[in-house]
Amino acid sequence: MRSVIQRVKYASVKVDEKIVSKIEIGLLVLIGIEDNDTNDDIEYLCSKIAQLRIFNDENEIMNKSVIDIEGNILVVSQFTLHASTKKGNRPSYIKASKPDFAIPMYEKFCTALEKKIGKKIGAGIFGADMKVELLNDGPVTIIIDSKNKDF
User: Fold this and answer.
1) pTM score, two decimals?
2) What CATH number does the domain containing 10 carry?
3) Using CA atoms, how far apart are residues 116 and 138, in angstroms rounded to an integer?
4) Would residue 111 show up in a list of annotated catalytic residues for this protein?
């Protein structure tokens, strides 16, 4: 399971020109799922994301988590996070899970993340053609891969 986490002032996701979810200060989380992901991957990523200290404290040092600042989270599924560019110039998405596996994992991920932060999160619509708008704060962008914990 691979994620890109962006600290944002705001973020929203539209489907068919309609906003389906939006947040103010917090995190935009792009999540990619592959077939060998498990509940352990969900637990690892959700714990990391909830506790990631990337918000400024009173001394302007990144020392607070999204929980500490009572921030929000918007989660958007993104199969392209598992793109392979090893051969040629057209990415291969063979590692990305198909919807029959990915949708339940995405839903479990969102539920687990809500439990970790103690509040409802925003979410995109799995498989939809989404338009994501955000104001990256910093910019601060972190990549976490549950299969490559040194990444």
Assistant:
1) 0.94
2) 3.50.80.10
3) 24
4) no
